[in-house]
Amino acid sequence: MISASGQRPRAALPLRARIVQWTRGPTFARDIVLVLAIKLVLLLALKYAFFNHPQAEDMRMAPAAVAQAILSVPMPPTAAPPASPSQQGTQRGNPQGERHAHD
């Protein structure tokens, strides 16, 4: 039967035939899939080779302690006591009393 567009409907190929056709033809999608698969294998190999175990057995920490160290906000350094009013006025053009290289 011919459809309204004037083309015959394509018969659905069996899965095996579609896989064979995909592997034989030079398609861009196939190349992308192969490159991504190779990258995945290499990344997993690197992970298992270098990041799977700590370098020393005594370097283990509880996951809660690691999370606290990573996610906690460090305390700001303690502020120095403010300068006396007589010291602030001695510097020209600088009401805060800070020294600069050009003073």
From TrEMBL:
Residues 75-84 have a biased composition (Pro residues). InterPro entries: CydP. Keywords: Membrane, Transmembrane, Transmembrane helix. The keyword Membrane applies. The chain crosses the membrane at residues 32-51. Residues 75-103 are annotated as: Disordered. NCBIfam families: small_CydP. This is Uncharacterized protein.
